[in-house]
UniProtKB/TrEMBL annotation:
Keywords: DNA-binding, Sigma factor, Transcription, Transcription regulation. Residues 620-639 are annotated as: Disordered. Belongs to the sigma-70 factor family. ECF subfamily. Residues 432-511 form the Core-binding (CB) domain. This is RNA polymerase sigma factor. Residues 532-667 form the Tyr recombinase domain.
Length: 667
């Protein structure tokens, strides 16, 4: 049976209202009853009432006040039902029952009058230092984030019973300790505030760099931490560290879109496309840090970390990063927060500012720290520094150790790839065979499937004629020329030149890695190909294309980009949304140079992106069938459609103009 549309809308409304209003409602009930567990149960009862009534009666004009009123009545009923309640509770129930409810506006005004203090009190209660870090996170997301148990479990990759037990234990501990529903004062306030900030940052860090699982990030957790942080900043505007944490999270969140590649693989900070950093979040981070400084007082750990993030945000390129300033800030941070993890980050800054030896000396002093035992970033950082020092065999062992320690699948993959790269670099060049070099050449991530197929034909013939076990340094240009003469002497010029291009690419690739100094294609001349008899389209017909409103924006944008950029069709079709620099009117496909376009293309691209953050720029009309799944990099994660193929693009152009794309001459 199909659920009625009104019912579905009401259920969605209940979910949204609960996430926005649950903290206010529970906080108000805790103020009335003094019991966190009971307050949440009564709020959940009100939620069930909404699920039962709203599909029939419709969503009230003020759903938050409706839920609060129902919760209040449930609280009165609960107090009346108690058989052994003290006289004070009876009097409280009488007062609540006889107190006039007033109008809905008056109820909402009363809630707003105390909601800030109530939510702040609830935040301090749920983050009480007596609770374990895991329990604080679970209780905070449950009470303040409005997340269900299954949502919390899914976010942290644990079972639902585990999360439920943490929440129950946390409530029991708070009840046993008799934690008052109040904002602490004096030294206790500073300690509790530190706990609140720690919980929020723990949630953010788990989203920013997931500790386990198949994904590198969980952006929903980052957004939830930002929401809680902004809420706390509004409730405690005079706390510098609160604004410092907001600044830190805003600045780090600005890099989220650039932290993964087309296939979801992690992208290191110095390799990120900074044109994809969110400038709005960066400006918000700057403003939050300014508010933190204006609040006065000594510089705390979150303010200092935000200042470090500012140094990265201000650098337009990785080379412009002021590492000396970052190292100085870490020096101050170590005095404020002398933890081994901060020391490890300081080692990275020292290495970038003053050389890898300086960083490695500090990392080696941290090897015996009990807190860092089993922490995968220690061998990972050490491996990076050893690579910079040319100690590849030691670096390989460190990367393999880091891969064994991490529980995050994408990170483990990257670490193992780096270990293999170090193993190749550490191996004597004379031992590398033609077969090994050819296999590594074809396994490059920047080659598309069609290019790999073409190159494999050439490399297979070379390996068959010269032998798989021949040392790469023993291969000469003369030997390659003999293979060409035997294999492709009678081939067409285009075929000859295609195989020659594959050899030249292989030769350049091996030369870049110091494995080969000779140009293997030196003995193979390029053959002249007959000039194409295809005449280019006449300029008036080309100009008329951009004015045809019967054409889809995708086709017009594709053809105009080809016309304005003079780029190859393969490179243009390979563009991804995350690799666009819209402000600079340019984009870069994996493994290619920047493609620049003009204002005409710039006007059409936003229609293609339409809010998408990842995936191919030019998409096909339909989703692929289950038997023809494309490569992950060719599938849009947001629409489920695949990348537009060259064949389809050629067909669409021929149907519209009667010409081929090669006739679309650039200006």
């Amino acid at each position: 049976m199909i659920e009625p549309v009104m019912s579905r809308d009401a259920h969605r409304a209940v979910d949204e209202v609960w996430k926005m209003e649950s903290a206010r409602i529970i906080a108000g009930l805790v103020r009335m009853l003094g019991d966190v567990g009971l307050a949440e149960e009564l709020a959940q009862d009100a939620l069930l009432a909404a699920l039962e009534r709203w599909p029939d009666s419709g969503v009230p004009d003020n759903p938050g006040a409706w839920l609060m009123a129902v919760s209040k009545r449930r609280a009165i009923d609960h107090l009346r039902r108690g058989e052994r309640l003290e006289r004070g509770h009876e009097q409280l129930a009488h007062e609540l029952a006889t107190r006039p409810d007033g109008t809905e506006a008056e109820t909402d005004a009363a809630l707003d009058d105390e909601v800030g203090d109530d939510v702040l009190r609830l935040m301090f209660v749920s983050c009480h230092p007596a609770l374990s870090a895991e329990s604080r996170v679970a209780l905070t997301l449950r009470l303040l984030g409005g997340l269900r148990t299954d949502e919390i479990a899914r976010a942290f990759l644990v079972s639902e019973p585990t999360v439920a037990q943490r929440v129950v234990r946390a409530k029991r501990t708070l009840a046993e300790l008799g934690v008052p529903f109040e904002v602490p004062t004096g030294p206790d306030r500073a300690a509790r505030l530190s706990s609140v900030l720690e919980v929020i940052y723990l949630v953010f860090n788990e989203g920013y760099a997931a500790s386990a699982g198949d994904g590198w990030m969980r952006q929903d957790l980052c957004q939830e931490a930002l929401r809680l942080g902004r809420l706390l900043a509004g409730l405690a505007p005079g706390e510098a560290e609160v604004h410092g944490l907001i600044a830190l999270m805003e600045l780090q969140a600005s890099r989220l879109a650039a932290r993964t590649g087309p296939s979801g693989e992690p992208v290191a900070l110095h390799e990120q496309n900074r044109g994809r950093w969110d400038q709005l979040l960066i400006r918000r981070g700057f403003a939050a840090l300014l508010r933190a400084r204006q609040s006065g007082g000594p510089l705390g750990p979150y303010v200092l970390q935000a200042a470090i993030a500012v140094c990265h945000a201000r650098a337009r390129t990785a080379e412009e990063t002021d590492w000396a300033q970052i190292a100085a800030l870490y020096e101050t941070l170590v005095r404020v927060l002398p933890t081994p993890v901060v020391q490890l980050n300081r080692a990275v800054a020292l290495a970038m500012a003053y050389g890898p030896e300086a960083g490695l000396a500090l990392v080696d002093t941290l090897a015996a720290e009990p807190a860092l035992k089993g922490y995968h970033r220690v061998p990972s950082v050490r491996g990076d520094l050893l690579v910079r020092l040319g100690r590849h065999e030691e670096a390989r062992r460190e990367f393999e150790r880091a891969a064994a320690l991490t529980l995050n699948v994408p990170e483990r993959t990257i670490l193992l790839e780096r270990a293999q790269t170090c193993a190749d670099a550490a191996r004597p060049e004379s031992a590398v065979t033609l077969a090994e070099a050819a296999s590594a050449f074809l396994a490059r991530a920047d080659l598309d499937a069609a290019t790999v197929r073409s190159y494999r034909q050439t490399m297979s013939r070379l390996r068959r004629d010269l032998g798989d076990d021949i040392p790469l340094r023993g291969v000469t240009a003369g030997q390659v020329a003999e293979v060409f003469a035997a294999a492709w002497e009678s081939a067409a010029a285009a075929t000859w030149n295609r195989h020659r291009g594959a050899v030249r690419s292989f030769s350049c690739w091996t030369a870049d890695r110091g494995r080969l100094g000779e140009d293997l294609a030196a003995g193979i001349g390029r053959r002249p190909e007959p000039r194409s008899r295809t005449r280019p389209m006449e300029p008036p017909r080309v100009e008329a294309l951009w004015k045809r409103q019967d054409l889809a924006p995708r086709e017009r944008a594709l053809w105009l980009m080809l016309h304005e950029s003079a780029a190859g069709i393969g490179s243009v079709l390979a563009l991804n949304v995350e690799d666009l620099d819209l402000a600079g009117m340019r984009g870069r496909a994996p493994g290619s140079r920047w493609i620049h376009w003009r204002s005409g293309t710039a006007e059409l691209i936003p229609q293609l992106v339409a809010g998408r953050r990842r995936g191919p720029l030019f998409l096909s009309e339909r989703r692929p069938g289950p038997g023809r799944r494309p490569a992950p990099g060719d599938l849009c994660p947001e629409t489920g459609r695949r990348r537009l193929s060259y064949e389809r693009a050629e067909y669409l152009f021929k149907r519209a103009t009667g010409h081929t794309l090669h006739q679309l001459r650039s200006r």
